[in-house]
Amino acid sequence: MNPGRPSTAVASLVAGAKLLNHTHTIFPGTRCKVLDVCAMETLLTRTSDVLLRLRDALAKAPEVKVWNLSLGSEQISDDAFSLFAHQLDGLSDEFGVLFVVAAGNYVDEPRRQWPANAALKDRITSPSDAVRILTVGAITHATAADGLSKLGEPAPYSRRGPGPVFTPKPDIVHAGGGVHAPWAAGSASTNVLGTSDVAYGSFGTSYAAPLVSAMAAHVWQSLAGSKNFVPAPHMVKALLIHSARLASQDYDAMERRYLGAGVPVDAVSALYDSDDCFTLMFEALVIPGYKWRKTPYPIPQSLIKNGKLQAEVVITAAYSPPLDPNAGSEYVRANVSVSFGLLEGSKIKSKVPLDGEPGSGGYESVQIEHGGKWSPVKLHRKKFPIGTENGQWAVQLETLLRANEPPPAEPIKVALIVSLRALDGDKNVHSDGVRALNASNWIKQTLPSRIPVSV
Questions:
Q1: Under DSSP, is residue 281 helix (H, G, I), strand (E, B) or coil?
Q2: For burial by CB atoms within 10 Å, which of 58, 73, 218, 386 has the most?
Q3: Of the candidates 271, 189, 168, 150, which has an alpha carbon nearest to the alpha carbon of residue 222?
Q4: What confidence tier does 454 reach under pLDDT thresholds 50, 70, 90?
Q5: Is residue 44 very low, low, confident or very high in pLDDT (cuts 50, 70, 90)?
Q6: Residue 455 — very low, low, confident or very high, per pLDDT cuts 50/70/90?
Q7: Is 288 exposed, middle or buried (0-12, 13-18, 19+ CB in 10 A)?
Q8: Is residue 24 a contact partner of residue 94, using CB atoms and an 8 Å limit?
Q9: Please, where in the chain does CATH 3.40.50.200 lie?
Q10: Where do you find CATH 2.60.120.380 in the chain?
Q11: What superfamily would CATH give domain 7-259?
Q12: What is the mean pLDDT of the chain?
């Protein structure tokens, strides 16, 4: 397990990251209560013991819905999910909780540079390969003269994706603390609280994870204030990933292996639109063999320029497919595909992802590596700077089961989030989107009922 991460230091970031690091705006002010569970006495504690203690803690504290795991074991493999990951996914399903897990720390030499320029053994560690969880990597939040990385860059210790079978990992990143030459803490590191109630600087993905855990807890609590549905782990996961994507640039394939979807700004941004953006979240129930479709999709009038849609479209979908620990690389047993485009007869002419773009078709291996096929998180993004043809827009989900996989007893629940954002900063987009939505006959609900308050 990762050394040097006392529970006091990790808990201090859940309870007061902003207070300890008040000079840096990246640290969230979402403070939470902490349930401290002793899962490891030493670095040699067996995984089986950790899992037994975790199960006992989950049973005794059903009110706790977000669990931070700042730990890790061996590096994951290319084509098989770890036993630890299997068990963690099972616990998430059994107890209905979201685990937020550190991606793991690469501490060997040579030190990784950025852009990454060496083939290192720095893939994520188990159990951060689990598919139900939120995997968190680390970035540097401050630049120092003797720092090994600069502001916003992946920290040199933060392990990279992808997960097994090209599953996109990490999901998101946050401030884990900067490293000073040769390999030490300093002014660019994260301040944490020690057992003697004295703050000190340190670094590691173990310190990025609790920042996200606190945000996730606030998002969960906000959703719990809504009357017509019960929060679920995949909903909170989708909202935080989507928030990170809206706050970050569109990374290329190499960058995503280190940065995931980026840094979520705060819990509020996961739940509220800016004036230049119109976002809808759908709680979809998808049945294999049938298409889930919503049309005509409400389009803000301010995004239609000269008869064309001129906007950025950002789509995130997260779901909990059936799993089979005995299936090896085919552990995930169902794939949900997303289409957003124009309805032509009974079919959709997909614009996001664009029909024919890498990963949207062709060989299975290409769809897996470049299109995220079989990944329980789908990420699509497209800009239309000169506009694209307008018409009757629709969003669609479709499920494919593995060969010989029996139909699930219940529909697959998908949290689907679609954002339409102005490219010119037009502040009328959100209000126009609300008017278009109100003109439809869709059943709708505004989220959330309560918001986090920074103290």
A1: strand
A2: 218
A3: 271
A4: very low
A5: low
A6: very low
A7: middle
A8: no
A9: 7-259
A10: 277-438
A11: Peptidase S8/S53 domain (3.40.50.200)
A12: 91
